[in-house]
Each structure stands twice: as C-alpha cells, then as structure tokens.
Amino acid sequence: MDKFTVHTGTAVPLRRSNVDTDQIIPAVYLKRVTKTGFADGLFNAWRADPDFVLNNPAYSGASVLIAGPEFGTGSSREHAVWALRDWGFRAVISPRFGDIFRGNALKDGLLPVELEQPAVEALWDAVEADPTLAVTVDLEAREVRAGANVWAFPLDDFSRWRLLEGLDDISLTLRHEAAVTAFEERRPQWKPAVI
Amino acid sequence: MLGEAPRTLSEKVWDAHVVRSAEGEPDLLYIDLHLLHEVTSPQAFDGLRMAGRQVRRPDLTLATEDHNTPTDNLITIADPISRTQIETLRKNCAEFGVRLHSLGHAQQGIVHVIGPQLGVTQPGMTIVCGDSHTATHGAFGSIAFGIGTSEVEHVLATQTLPQHKPKTMAVNVTGELPAGVTAKDLILALIAKLGTGGGRGHIVEYRGPAIEKLSMEGRMTISNMSIEWGAKAGLIAPDETTFAYLKGREYAPKGDDWDRAVEYWRSLRTDEGATFDTEVTIDASSITPFVTWGTNPGQGVPLDAVVPDPESFEADVERTAARKALEYMDLKPGTALRDIGVDVVFLGSCTNGRIEDLRAAAEVLRGRKVADGVRMMVVPGSAAVRAAAEEEGLHEVFTAAGAEWRFAGCSMCLGMNPDTLKPGQRSASTSNRNFEGRQGRGGRTHLVSPPVAAATAITGRLAAPADLS
Ligand code: SF4
C-alpha cells in the first residue's frame, strides 16, 4: 500500500450529502477485472452535467475532495476508492463516511478525514472563494490546515500507523499464523464446510 | 470476564471468533464462511497470485454468479465485458479449488439467497462477502458483514480479518405488525426514522415480539437492509423458527451434531441484564405500507402520505438532499404517493426474492392482470427458489397476470446486467436501493414490499393490496 504522511493539494467542494458508492462509480464500470482504469467511471452520471463541480476547470488537478455527510454509503465496491485514486484524489473530507468505504480507503492509501459539518462548510466556502487554496492533510499530526485554520481529525492509532508505514494487512496477519492454526484446531467440527 | 458478565448475542459471537487480541490493535477474527461473487473477487485473486499465496480454506469458501448474469436465459452472456468477468471467476475458482455455482447450476443464485437455502448459513457464525448486503445472514444470529476487495483477498489468504469491535445497538420492535404489513415496510419505516447513518459504527440486534413473529424470510429482509441505515451488521437471535428452517438442509448439522449445535445456538441469546451501547424502540403496530419517494432508502413515507416538501426538513443538508432527490425523481411536493404512476415493477433481489416474497405477490396477482403499459418482472433469488415456485404453480399465476417469469440473479436490483430501467423510467422495486441510476442510468426507483409491488403492477400506480377491489 502507498504510504500516507502529509499531503498538500487543492480541493474540490462537493456540496452533497449521501454520496453513495453507486454515484462515485456506477455499476456498469465494475465489470473490469483490474484495479486500475476506473477514473473514467468516477461520478460518471454527474459528470454529464456541465455544471458539475468536477467539470469546473478551476478545480482541475485537485487532490482533496470535500463532501457532505454520509460519503461512500451503500455498496461495498472498492472500485469507488480505486476510481477516486485514479482520478488523483489522496484524501476525502466528510463529516461521516460509510463504514465499508472508510475501511476500503484506509487499505488503498486514500485518507478518509472526518471533520465536523461546520468545518466542512468553512472549507467549502474557502475553496469556492479561492480554488487555488492549498489544503494540507497531515496524518502525523492528525489535522487539516487551510489558510489560517487548523482542524483536528480522529483516526485510531493502528490505522494511522499502517498508513504512515504503508503496511499491508495480509503480511501483518501472517505474522500470527500459528494463532490462526491453533484457533482452527479448536473450532467445533460440526461447523459447515462446503467441500 | 468472559462467561461471567452478561453479554449480548453479538458479543458472544464476536468473542467466540477472536483469534488474537492485543491492546491498541483490532481483534483478529476468524471467518467461518466466505462467500464470493464475480464482481468484487477478481482483483483479490490477482493479489493472491502476485504474492504466490493460496486460498487458506477453500472448504469455507463458496462462490456464485449473480450480478452480471442474464435472467432471460441460462447460456449466453451477451456483453463481452460481463462475460469476461464471469469467466475470470470460473478460472479463479478452478485454479484455487473453490466451489462455484455457475449459471445453470441447480444452486446458482444471489449470493445471499443461496447461503441460507443450502443451510450453510447457521447461527453463531462469522460470515463475510465482498458485498454490502451480507448482513442478510445476520437473520440467523451470525455476525455477517460486507467487505471490500482488499479484505476479500485478506480472507482468502488467511481466513481471518482484523476488525475493530463495533458498538452494540438494540432495536426493540414492540407490538405486532398489522395484517398486510410486511418486514419490508418495517425496515423502510425504521430507516426513515433513524436515517441512512443511524446505525453507523454499530452491530445491531433486532429484537422484540414483532421480530420473533417473523418467518426466516421476513427476518432476512430486515437484516438485509441493515447496511441501508449504516449498521455494520444486523443480528436476530436464533430460536425455534431458525432451527425449524435449518433442520434437514444440505449443510445443516446431522444426528448428534445437530443436538450439539442447537444447544450451542440456544446459548447465544442475549443474556438477561446485558446492556447495549445504544437502544432504540419502534412500535410495529403503528406501521403501514411504506414506500420511498427519494434517492436514498431513508427518504420514505407511508403509502398514505404525500411527497414531502423539502422546506419542511430541519437540517440544511436534508433540505438540499430532498430538493435534489425530487428533481431527480421528477416529483412535486404534496403529490399523493398513490398518484405516482410506474413503468416497471421489479419483484426480486436478495431483499425480497425468496419463496415467501413470491407467494405474497402471487396471492395479490392471482386472477388479476398487470396494467396496460406496465412491465412486471419476477426474478427469483435463486434457481432453487424458481424451482420451488414452479412446483407450487406460482409461475403460472405470474404469467397469467402478464408478468415476466425469469431466471435467478440480481437482475434489475443494479444496472449491471441487461435488466435495466431506461432513462426517465420509473419503477416500483422490491430491492434495497433507490440511489440515482441504481437500476439503470436515469431510472427512478421507489422501494416497496412484494404485496405493494403486486398491487402497483395491477393499478399502474403505487398501491397496496387493500386498494384493489
Ligand atoms: S440482489 Fe442487489 S443488493 Fe443483492 S447482492 Fe444482488 S445486486 Fe447486491
């Protein structure tokens, strides 16, 4: 996994709540069997509208997405995270994320940053007033900085450590393989098996 | 301490699966059953291959084809990209020794329908799948939740998952559902009340007399939609209804094992005196047929109501969301829900594609006709549901009414296979998501129960069976 320490970039204000993963990437784009090449599917239906914020050239090259509450609810599709990464996003800021999306993002080096609604609104206003505003997402300090403002965000120590180090979960778990084997020996034999 | 302090159902199941726990780290949970389908697994198998890893427990892994499959035939997948995805699953399952129920197999079907029907979904298990509606299996008293593709790879490689322990929530459903009101109405009403984020960070237990009275099919409908209000998982305590459903199924324990298993399953019920981090109560007796008007499952009202005025919402974000939803849905505030005409009625999905759902709809349709200009699709949740329905003659009721009787699959639940809404078309759908474009780009979805779907097909407008003469 890519490491995440501190990222600074410009940001896109997405003034919508309940941005479900079907909006982030519609199902027709999920047929690919690779992990890349999903950028064309990102917000595909909304991008058909010329006024959609991602179509605004002022925000081209932005790498931080600022969205309303309940971002990434719905379908478990990790393709939503891959598409955001392919497009160039490194962090998403929202008051609340769908659980599965949040977990997926943490696995793929896309930082889900939870800020309270007033902070999100302040960021929306600031970025709309100045699309070139640099927004810094600092995982080491667990804070977002923009202009003179600083907001702290929560993230558990373990997830933070994994991201800072760019660690892969499977290798971490395989360090405990003996414990897994011991657990398997204790499992009741009547539990179902399909082979 | 374990075994001493009173614990909830989900805590007992969780504790029984902890392989390793360490301060400041997520628990490492053992996974009893890993379900796979073609959409969220290819990149996970690729990851295994690249790292030179095997599937640790193919015997605890089961794959099916459901999302991309056509429902008008069992042979041809016309779209080449869909076909490649299915063929990739077939190749991966063959290479890694995973059992697969392919299109045409007697046990093919929607991943969340086949687990219970085979009896491989049992109480007290941990069940995962790269699919958010995995919560369905919680109806048996299992911790079942959806995961992303990275986690699919993790489970394939290790049969475990690192998980932070969620908080617990009780949803107490008091009273009794009135006649003609279904589990679907109950869960839609609950989501409207608590919001799409209401369950976030919690494993929920649905309990109380109204839940206990539900059949397994009804319970699965409830647990299925846990994710639609943000819950990690939604459990229902196993009881006699659960045991009766499981007994004799292909993978249910047999003989002495059955007795041992039942004894264990009985011990899983939430202890007297156990506490939940959050408790909510909803009165089932006040619920009436419920439908959605907007573009998330929380935007629902009783069928008797009118489309709400966005300005009536308190929070700014909700007002904006309602305005956008009405624009997308092409609806005006104050319109009676019963005045909304539909083009398509979809009966199916992992929410309402089981035999009881088909029976409920067939009962309404028997001797009646689907309205002119309305297309009704009946898509059984699995090949076995289809066969059972045919045995009962339900397919004849549907076709006599003018509905289409199709093969099993996800079908119009999501716009990934040939069954989609056309732009601007409006559906009454027994599925679980009314997101923009979910059933096809530009399509407009109203979520409904099977009896409401059937009545709507007959009148051509959102309706309940009681509205039919
Ligand atoms: S029926 Fe719908 S919700 Fe269920 S698994 Fe298929 S696509 Fe997902």
UniProtKB/TrEMBL annotation, chain A:
GO molecular function: 3-isopropylmalate dehydratase activity
All residue ranges annotated as the Aconitase A/isopropylmalate dehydratase small subunit swivel domain in the record: 1-117
InterPro entries on file: 3-IsopropMal_deHydase_ssu, Aconitase/3IPM_dehydase_swvl, AconitaseA/IPMdHydase_ssu_swvl, IPMI_Swivel, LeuD
EC number(s) from the headed UniProt entry: 4.2.1.33
UniProtKB keywords: Amino-acid biosynthesis, Branched-chain amino acid biosynthesis, Leucine biosynthesis, Lyase
Statement: the UniProt record of this protein carries the keyword Amino-acid biosynthesis: yes
Recorded catalytic activity of this chain's protein: (2R,3S)-3-isopropylmalate = (2S)-2-isopropylmalate
Any single biological process term in GO: L-leucine biosynthetic process
Transmembrane portions of the chain: none
CC annotations in GO: 3-isopropylmalate dehydratase complex
Pfam families named among the record's database cross-references: Aconitase_C
Pathway: Amino-acid biosynthesis; L-leucine biosynthesis; L-leucine from 3-methyl-2-oxobutanoate: step 2/4
Family affiliation: Belongs to the LeuD family. LeuD type 1 subfamily.
Subunit structure: Heterodimer of LeuC and LeuD.
Function (record text): Catalyzes the isomerization between 2-isopropylmalate and 3-isopropylmalate, via the formation of 2-isopropylmaleate.
Protein name per its UniProtKB record: 3-isopropylmalate dehydratase small subunit
Organism field: Planosporangium flavigriseum
UniProtKB/TrEMBL annotation, chain B:
EC number(s) from the headed UniProt entry: 4.2.1.33
CDD domains noted in UniProt: IPMI
Principal EC category: lyase
UniProt entry keywords in alphabetical sequence: 4Fe-4S, Amino-acid biosynthesis, Branched-chain amino acid biosynthesis, Iron, Iron-sulfur, Leucine biosynthesis, Lyase, Metal-binding
Entries under Pfam families matching the protein: Aconitase (PF00330)
GO molecular-function terms, A-Z: 3-isopropylmalate dehydratase activity; 4 iron, 4 sulfur cluster binding; metal ion binding
Family annotation (InterPro entries): 3-IsopropMal_deHydase_lsu, Acnase/IPM_dHydase_lsu_aba_1/3, Acoase/IPM_deHydtase_lsu_aba, Aconitase_4Fe-4S_BS, Aconitase_4Fe-4S_dom, IPM_dehydratase_rel_enz, IPMI_cat
Cofactor or coenzyme needed: [4Fe-4S] cluster
GO terms under biological process: L-leucine biosynthetic process
Textual note on the cofactor: Binds 1 [4Fe-4S] cluster per subunit.
SUPFAM superfamilies: Aconitase iron-sulfur domain (SSF53732)
UniProt-annotated stretches for the region Disordered: 420-450
Listed pathway(s): Amino-acid biosynthesis; L-leucine biosynthesis; L-leucine from 3-methyl-2-oxobutanoate: step 2/4
Annotated positions binding [4Fe-4S] cluster: 350, 410, 413
Listed HAMAP family: LeuC_type1
Entry similarity comment: Belongs to the aconitase/IPM isomerase family. LeuC type 1 subfamily.
Subunit structure: Heterodimer of LeuC and LeuD.
NCBIfam families: leuC, PRK05478.1, PRK12466.1
Name under which the protein is recorded: 3-isopropylmalate dehydratase large subunit
